[in-house]
Task: inverse folding
């Protein structure tokens, strides 16, 4: 098995969805959410603090050509890829977020300073993990690479009497309506000899930079309101309003011979310019050109993650999408150790958790598997946020304030904490974690749940009941049986969210979804959930209707307006593919009803028709890697049931695969595996493959699941595949609280 790093294509997901027409089951699915991956091809460090990319100001990362788009095909802001410079701290795949970072815009120019902000067309774009390059209309070749807390720019100029590199300290956010971010306070200083530093307070957070440029013979000046500040070495702004903001920054200028290269190194910190300088020096050293060194080190870091995941078989297209999905899964969240601007002590600080609603089901389990220490750091950071702010965040930006995405869900951090506890992750004070988990369950929607045993919007009832269950798991493990029993009693109130007569959730308001797609959550008591719906047959019939079995193809939304089309699609109550977070786990609900063959059909249809190795190759927002991590797990034939230390088993997309987890190898082998092309490849649409029998470490695996401890401990999972459904995993179901099934 080979390292698949060279198969990564960072351009996947950067353009509007443009997949071949689906056939069969996948053609019956319908989704309203914006059909664009919202990824960017910029230079990123795995789980690092910095992402750097060409900046056009488009939605939502700053790269690309689109306006704000939340439904249907996105509308275009520009006709082509272009950029006014290169910015840092881009998001990756997020959805309805109107402003997100893009601070310290760096622009190479051969025009006067008045031309700053011009959008130049991008030519000959190249991207790979940790590296991005493009050529502007002006003939300047632009290259970017990043470290964990640093960025290095390299510009190759055409011959020019007055070449320039301009750093705009005042710019942030997006160039769309209501997308601009304005600094509240700022100071910057030109230190001479190519060095400068400064701090901005953006969205309540102090962001500092230390700059060192390889421009020994060029002039170095500050500028304000597009005018040079001759002789000035410092700018201070104690209070900035939108109405008083004038752009300001640093300019380096001088003659350039044809082919002359200039490097600009930047160190960042949330704790002041001295730490920004230390970060730059620690990662790259000062005083010499460092682009190639930084690029090489970041490439090696990416390779270390990709060395842990290997596959055999698969078509070129499938391997490219799989490799890129793994790459996208490891860009966010941002781990910035010892950088919290909100508390003074050292230790983990994690931001761009955007958001738990997106990433807790698939991405956090993947990060915890490939980087257990990072998984522990994430949990410790969440606990510290709860300690400081009084609640576990649903989302956590590099921003201060109440924008914490509470409408999306409740108590989602509890699932990751329960998994971390059961896996035995190191470095966490679990008694202290339990205190905060209990307190958090009583806040916001939790107050209604505590008093009335139900909360509205109704999905928060499911979240909170599940949160009580996850908290009970830790309480019981710590030996507090009385508390665990009390918590588990409240965890049973998930039933209050459902209508027994329909087996569906009650009518309510739903965040980016409806009662149908939220009704098939994988709860802690699926046995009781299926009984509430009327038993296996009725539950399967409901799932079959939701997934469109036996139904004709549907038509997807185009560009707005589409009122009639939207109403018609919503009335189908259909699976939204992988375009919406509540649907990600629904295919595996069949496992609990003894129909893993249905799971196999749906998952293979999704892997075949909803992804492609093209810029339009994602079916919707990647959402910080949530969608991509789903693809990784599904391709391996696994699905993590967050909060239950459980992985469901299905037919994989590759003949052989291996995961290295904490030094242990988990090997997935198949017998009778047949290569299945993706829809973007020529050939007959593939028939699904079904598990006929399975063994784990040589012993029969009669149920379609393994524990998280078994996965992390390493072992050999062998699956015999065939073209027809079998009796495998139809009798032994995944565990539920009410039946206490034991393997």
Result:
């Amino acid at each position: 098995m080979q390292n698949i790093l060279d198969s990564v294509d960072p351009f996947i997901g950067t353009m509007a969805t443009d997949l071949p027409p689906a056939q069969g089951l996948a053609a019956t699915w319908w989704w309203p959410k914006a059909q664009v991956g919202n990824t960017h091809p910029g230079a990123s460090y795995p789980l690092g603090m910095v992402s750097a990319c060409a900046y056009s100001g488009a939605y939502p990362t700053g790269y690309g050509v689109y306006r704000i788009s939340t439904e249907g095909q996105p509308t275009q802001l520009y006709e082509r890829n272009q950029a006014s410079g290169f910015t840092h701290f881009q998001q990756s795949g997020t959805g309805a977020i109107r402003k997100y970072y893009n601070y310290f815009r760096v622009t190479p120019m051969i025009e006067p300073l008045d031309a700053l902000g011009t959008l130049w067309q991008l030519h000959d774009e190249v991207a790979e993990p940790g590296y991005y390059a493009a050529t502007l209309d002006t003939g300047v070749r632009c290259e970017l690479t990043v470290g964990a807390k640093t960025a290095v720019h390299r510009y190759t100029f055409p011959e020019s009497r007055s070449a320039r590199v301009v750093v705009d300290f005042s710019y942030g956010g997006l160039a769309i309506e209501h997308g601009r971010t304005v600094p509240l306070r700022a100071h910057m200083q030109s230190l001479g000899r190519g060095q400068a530093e400064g701090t901005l307070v953006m969205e309540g957070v102090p962001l500092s930079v230390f700059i060192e440029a390889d421009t020994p013979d060029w002039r170095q000046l500050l500028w304000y309101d597009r005018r040079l500040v001759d002789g000035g070495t410092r700018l201070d702004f104690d209070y900035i309003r939108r109405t008083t903001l004038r752009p300001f920054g640093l300019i380096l200028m001088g003659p350039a011979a044809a082919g002359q290269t200039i490097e600009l190194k930047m160190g960042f910190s949330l704790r002041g310019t001295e730490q920004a300088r230390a970060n730059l020096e620690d990662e790259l050293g000062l005083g010499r050109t460092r682009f190639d060194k930084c690029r090489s080190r970041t490439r090696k870091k990416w390779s270390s993650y990709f060395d842990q995941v290997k596959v055999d078989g698969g078509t070129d297209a499938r391997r490219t999408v799989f490799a890129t999905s793994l790459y996208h899964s490891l860009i966010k969240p941002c781990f910035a150790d010892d950088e919290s601007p909100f508390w003074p002590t050292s230790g983990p600080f994690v931001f761009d958790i955007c958001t738990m609603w997106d990433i807790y089901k698939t991405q956090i389990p993947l990060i915890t598997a490939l980087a257990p220490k990072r998984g522990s750091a994430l949990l410790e950071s969440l606990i510290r946020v709860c300690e400081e702010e009084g609640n576990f965040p649903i989302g956590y930006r590099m921003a201060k304030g109440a924008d914490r995405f509470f409408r999306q869900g409740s108590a989602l951090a509890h699932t990751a904490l329960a998994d971390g506890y059961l896996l035995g992750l190191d470095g966490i004070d679990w008694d202290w974690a339990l205190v905060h988990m209990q307190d958090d369950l009583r806040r916001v929607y939790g107050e209604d749940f505590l008093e009335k045993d139900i909360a509205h919007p109704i999905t928060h009832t499911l979240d909170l009941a599940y949160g009580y269950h996850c908290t009970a798991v830790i309480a019981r493990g710590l030996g507090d049986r009385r508390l665990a029993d009390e918590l588990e009693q409240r965890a049973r109130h998930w039933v209050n969210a459902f209508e027994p007569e329909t087996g569906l959730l009650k009518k309510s308001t739903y965040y980016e979804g409806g009662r149908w797609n939220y009704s098939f959550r994988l709860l802690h008591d699926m046995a009781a959930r299926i009984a509430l719906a009327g038993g296996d047959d009725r539950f399967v019939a409901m799932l079959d209707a939701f997934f469109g079995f036996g139904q004709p193809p549907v038509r997807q939304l185009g560009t707005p307006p589409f009122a009639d089309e939207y109403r018609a699609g919503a009335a189908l109550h259909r699976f939204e593919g992988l375009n919406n977070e509540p649907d990600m786990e629904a295919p595996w609900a069949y496992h609990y009803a003894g129909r893993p063959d249905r799971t196999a059909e749906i998952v293979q249809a999704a892997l075949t028709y909803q992804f492609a190795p093209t810029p339009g190759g994602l079916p919707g927002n990647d959402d910080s890697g949530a969608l991509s991590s789903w693809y990784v797990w599904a391709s391996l034939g696994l699905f993590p049931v967050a909060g239950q230390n459980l992985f469901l088993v299905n037919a994989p997309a590759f003949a052989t695969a291996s995961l290295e987890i904490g030094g242990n190898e988990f090997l997935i082998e198949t017998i009778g595996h047949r290569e299945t092309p993706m829809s973007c490849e020529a050939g007959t649409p593939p028939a699904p493959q079904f598990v006929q029998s399975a063994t784990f470490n040589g012993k029969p695996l009669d149920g379609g699941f393994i524990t998280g401890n078994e996965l992390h401990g390493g072992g050999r999972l062998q699956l015999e595949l065939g073209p027809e459904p079998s009796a495998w995993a139809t009798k032994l179901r995944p565990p539920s609280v009410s039946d206490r099934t034991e393997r």
Q: What stands out?
A: The first helix runs from residue 273 to 284.
